[in-house]
Amino acid sequence: MLTALTFAFVDSINLLLIGVIVAVGIVAPRAGVASRSNYAPITALLIAGDWLGVASLALLMLVIFDGLGPVVQHFVEGPIFGILLVAVGVITGLLALRGGDNSGLVERIMGPLRSPNPLTVLTGFVLGVVQSATSVPFYGGLAVLSAAGIGPVVRYTSLVLYATVALSLPTLTALLVAWVRARPDSLAGHAFERARANPRPVTMAATWAVAVLLILLGTLHLL
């Protein structure tokens, strides 16, 4: 179970969602005398929608993995699983050297996020499904969970925790952005401004963190 949650944590390094949350924090007006900020409700609805997307796809994939039974069990317990994790980690690290960012995509996503509304939840849901569907750690964690040998009630109930851990870093980012918005002259505010002005090193560091964690998990599996 702990191994599955470790994969969920790696999956939480979701640069696209984190970038969207930061963008909302930049464009959302601060609370004034005659109005209040809509940053909190927008990010709350966005993260809630993303959580629903992650949890929904996780439920579907766990049902599929459970249906495969021994196939998933042999895959997770065999060396191919570890080799695949190491290979994906190496490829992720190499892709980080190419640079690039999600700024263009973030700008297109920002349309429904100017105010809290049902489209905000839907946007989060789509982001959760798409991000999870393209994430190797997401599938890896669910495969481990399926093969963990725990009862079905505990296994499926744990998806609530799995999806929550998968949203841990974006949630922490939302809280940090809220802090920075309230105290822009704080040490955290200055650090945030430097990171926003230099997105490439931040993106590269986060991508390399994912690569290192995948290589580490794969290596530990092979030992």
Total domains, how many? 1
Q: Rough shape?
A: globular
Structural class: mainly alpha
How large is the radius of gyration? 19 Å
**Counted beta strands:** 0
Order of helices and strands: HHHHHHHHHHHHH
Structure commentary:
This protein is an all-alpha fold and 223 residues long. The chain has one domain (2-27, 36-222). Helix content is 79%, strand content 0%. It has 13 helices and no strands. The protein has helices at residues 2-11, 15-27, 39-68, 70-77, 79-96, 103-109, 118-133, 136-146, 152-157, 159-166, 168-182, 187-197, 199-222. Helix 1 (2-11) packs parallel to helix 10, helix 2 (15-27) packs across helix 6 and helix 2 runs parallel beside helix 11. The radius of gyration is 19 Å and the shape is globular. The two termini are 19 Å apart. The mean pLDDT is 85.
